[in-house]
Amino acid sequence: MAAGLATWLPFARAAAVGWLPLAQQPLPPAPGVKASRGDEVLVVNVSGRRFETWKNTLDRYPDTLLGSSEKEFFYDADSGEYFFDRDPDMFRHVLNFYRTGRLHCPRQECIQAFDEELAFYGLVPELVGDCCLEEYRDRKKENAERLAEDEEAEQAGDGPALPAGSSLRQRLWRAFENPHTSTSALVFYYVTGFFIAVSVIANVVETIPCRGSARRSSREQPCGERFPQAFFCMDTACVLIFTGEYLLRLFAAPSRCRFLRSVMSLIDVVAILPYYIGLLVPKNDDVSGAFVTLRVFRVFRIFKFSRHSQGLRILGYTLKSCASELGFLLFSLTMAIIIFATVMFYAEKGTNKTNFTSIPAAFWYTIVTMTTLGYGDMVPSTIAGKIFGSICSLSGVLVIALPVPVIVSNFSRIYHQNQRADKRRAQQKVRLARIRLAKSGTTNAFLQYKQNGGLEDSGSGEEQALCVRNRSAFEQQHHHLLHCLEKTTCHEFTDELTFSEALGAVSPGGRTSRSTSVSSQPVGPGSLLSSCCPRRAKRRAIRLANSTASVSRGSMQELDMLAGLRRSHAPQSRSSLNAKPHDSLDLNCDSRDFVAAIISIPTPPANTPDESQPSSPGGGGRAGSTLRNSSLGTPCLFPETVKISSL
Amino acid sequence: MGIQGMELCAMAVVVLLFIAVLKQFGILEPISMEDSSDGELELSTVRHQPEGLDQLQAQTKFTKKELQSLYRGFKNECPTGLVDEDTFKLIYAQFFPQGDATTYAHFLFNAFDADGNGAIHFEDFVVGLSILLRGTVHEKLKWAFNLYDINKDGYITKEEMLAIMKSIYDMMGRHTYPILREDAPAEHVERFFQKMDRNQDGVVTIEEFLETCQKDENIMSSMQLFENVI
Questions:
Q1: Can you give the residue range of the structural domain that contains B78?
Q2: B141 contact residues in A (CB cutoff 8 A)
Q3: d(CA A351, CA A335)
Q4: Which residues 32-91 on chain B approach chain A with CB closer than 8 angstroms?
Q5: Using CA atoms, how far apart are residues A470 and A155, in angstroms rounded to an integer?
Q6: Do A56 and B76 touch (CB under 8 A)?
Q7: What is the per-residue pLDDT for A366?
């Protein structure tokens, strides 16, 4: 309780006078006295609401904003108060912390807003008082989970965009995990589902007694014995399909050990194993008993449906997460069963012809009674037995009723969570699209501005389009910034459309689409940077490395010229590269060539091994670009840049 | 006759359940003579109001503003207006986290609690502080003597001094340099008595104490140490 300490410290120091006569060594001098001005009232103005407090109150916590000299930054000398442009409702709680030493968490506010306020005022979230701590933590955890789910969904949403060049294995695994990615996966999914159903139905139908149409046998045979070949064929077909599926999954799994240990694969194995064992086991009578038992395991095929049904998976997950409650239920039931069985046994002992022959025999009665089944095959006949039997059934109701709501609430929570996740995933796509639109809006504004001749240095003010003039101060400065960037790098911004046209026949790969979403810098997404260095339009993949002399590689990560489009892997020799530019080394400002560059953050090093040397700007191996002319008027070039970038 | 036994048990269980049900309905209350009524009427803790500001100003050497500031802090910490011994020990212990300050806090508490009613009021608090911070050297020494004299009989015996010394050394805790020896307090007491006890009668009176302290340069100079605390 820092508040308490600060208040009592003078007292503790004063009480140290008691040590003075006992001191054997001279005591150290007291620390320097700062001029104690006496306590004064400070006014803190938070968005118009005035809070007044003693200065001492704020000084109690010197490592926060209000307690340290940091608040002087917010001091308004004209009005003599400290002005904060923050939420006044939240400030109440912050100030109360100073006053009482306990930080309370407002129940109706968003927990993230509260966190932000705490961060602003320099309070650590651990200061939240005990009364509110539990709730604060719960809400924060819930929030964090939800955000994590969002992120996961976002990443998973990118899943369908396969990285180009993934192996067959990865594609197969993806097809297995998300059947909706491709039609073949969907077909496979439904086929396996169908065969699972067929197999299960065949198992069931096998045991129905078929009436022989022609012959009247002494007893009715189950269908399985009447048509053994048919059922055997069906079984074989199903098992073949299941085996094939299992092997394919095993092959495609990224981590085979983990796959082998997973529940689903175990179910698969258990489903198909009886068949093979049945094949191997010879059909003699001793073993056939065991063989028949094995057929029971065929029913586990029905669990393969859990891949197809999410609800089933949720149920399984719920049961797993409620393991402790289930365990408790089981334990308490066992205890009660043993107790009541013993009591009933001894109560009914005297009766002759009693069913309660032993305590284990009484177990059956107890279970049936406690679960209120009441088959009636065992009933007590003595009065004591009846009394205890009724107590048994009453307590059974109670014991079972207690843990069940916990399990139910768990299931409900998980189920709703899942539903929420699905709904959010659906909404996520819309949200992302909208965000992308907003982001490209800024670049579009700039491009629009350029198109309207805003960059013309000519002072033809009237000819400038009205839209150029009506930009806000922010926009003006932003556009100026982009313009400076263009000048620095000797490249120009252009829009996605032009860029993708430039790419033309080259396969888009995953790069183009991805790069549109990553950029959040002033550099627009997926922009096409132009080079003012003249190059004739050549549909050759030349990758430019570090065409800007002035900018080091590190800082220009996002503008890195990566070829998303490497058409030819054959490294161009330096001489050949050098040859070309010299041909067309005319500083012609009219013909502009574009270098297609993809901006992506971060730079995947795997694709640009030779670019990793940030050495001389002239260094660099292959360069990839597609070049084409454009008619955008840009100011003249810097010869140095040309030379450098021409390798 | 196991059957009879079981029937008896069954009857007993039935009777017990019956009584439990009746208790629920409150029919059996006269039988259960619990003093449940007292629980509700538990009085809230005693509240204490200090004397007026002017009187306190007369009694102590603090200015009005200082008294106001002191009282605000005091009231903030103890809204009821008094500090009981446990709270006091808790507070004092926070200043000495490495050792055990409870014993010394106990002695301090007794020294501050002038009227000996088991709780420190604001007046006690402020009067004590006034002596310690604004009092004359004489008064401070008298206060210290009062602290050491546990049974307030006017004499400091060796046992009392030993208790005080031990409590002070306790506050140091175990992790000291050099290592705290078992007989360090006793040695210190011996030295103290050698210095203070003029007539070697085994006790230190107030006169001996004052005399010796006033002759000791170290002690006199260190008396000024804590004057600027408030």
A1: 3-18+61-227
A2: 21
A3: 26
A4: 65, 68-69, 72-74, 76-77, 91
A5: 40
A6: no
A7: 94
| B31 lies in some domain | no
Q: Please enumerate residues of A whose Cβ is less than 8 A from a Cβ of B.
A: 1, 3-5, 7-27, 29-30, 33, 36, 38-39, 54, 56, 99-100, 346-347, 349-350, 382-384, 387-388, 391
What per-residue confidence (pLDDT) applies to A183?
A: 87
Is A54 close to B72, i.e. CB distance below 8 A? yes
B162 touches chain A (CB under 8 A): no
- Domain count for chain B: 1
A483-498: per-residue pLDDT in tens?
787 777 777 777 666 6
Identify which of A49, A32, A50 has the alpha carbon closest to the alpha carbon of residue A41.
A50
- The residue ranking higher by pLDDT, A229 or A442, is A229
Residue A220: Cβ within 10 Å count: 13
What's the pLDDT at A386? 93
Closest to A349 (Cβ–Cβ): which among B2, B9, B14? Answer: B2
For residue A364, what pLDDT is reported?
94
* Chain B CB contacts of A382 below 8 Å: 3, 6-7
Residue A453 pLDDT: 64
What's chain A's average pLDDT? Answer: 72
Residue A523 and residue A599 in contact, taking contact as beta carbons nearer than 8 Å: yes
Answer whether CATH 1.20.120.350 is correct for domain A178-211+220-308: yes
Question: Rounded to an integer, what distance in angstroms lies between the CA atom of residue A414 and that of residue A435?
Answer: 30
Residues A271, A243: Cα–Cα separation, whole Å = 9
Instruction: For an interface test with A, give the residue of B208, B222, B224 to mutate (most A CBs within 10 A).
Output: B222
pLDDT in tens, A99-117: 888 899 888 988 889 999 9
Establish if B135 belongs to a structural domain: yes
What is the average pLDDT across A57-79?
A: 88
Residue A621 neighbours by CB distance under 10 Å: 16
Any domain includes B39: no
Nearest CA in chain B to A26: B218
Q: Mean pLDDT, to the nearest integer, of A427-455?
A: 77
Query: A314-431 belongs to which CATH class?
Result: mainly alpha
Q: Look at residue A161 in the predicted model and tell me its pLDDT.
A: 54
Give the CATH number for residue B145: 1.10.238.10
DSSP letters spanning A198-244: HHHHHHHHTTSEEPPSS---SSPEEHHHHSHHHHHHHHHHHHHHHHH
CB contact under 8 A, A12 and B92: yes
For residue B223, the chain A residues in CB contact (below 8 A) are 17, 20
Q: Would B43 be classed as within a structural domain?
A: no
Would you call A384 and B223 a contact, using CB atoms and an 8 Å cutoff? no
pLDDT digits (tens, 9 = 90+) for A534-585: 444 444 434 444 443 333 343 343 333 433 334 444 444 444 444 444 444 4
Cis amide prior to B30 (ω within 30 degrees): no
Positions of chain B with pLDDT lower than 50, given as ranges: 1
Return the residue in A5, A20, A37, A356 with the most chain B beta carbons within 10 A, the one to mutate for interface testing. Answer: A20
* Cβ–Cβ contact B187 with A under 8 A: no
CATH 3.20.20.70 is right for the domain spanning A41-155:
no
> Which residue is closest to A4 within chain B, CA to CA?
B77
pTM score: 0.51
Q: Do B6 and A11 touch (CB under 8 A)?
A: no
Q: Are residues B95 and A8, on separate chains, in Cβ contact within 8 Å?
A: yes
Q: Which letter does DSSP use for residue A565 in this model?
A: -
Q: How far apart are CA A630 and CA A113, in angstroms?
A: 49
* pLDDT at position A532 over 70: no
pLDDT tens per residue, range A617-629: 433 333 333 334 3
pLDDT of A47 reads 92
Of A71 and A292, the one with more pLDDT: A71
Handedness of CA B172, B176, B182, B186 (dihedral sign): negative
Q: Which residues of A touch B7 (CB under 8 A)?
A: 382-384
Average pLDDT (A197-218) is: 77
Rg (CA), chain B: 28
Domain boundaries, chain A: 41-155, 178-211+220-308, 314-431
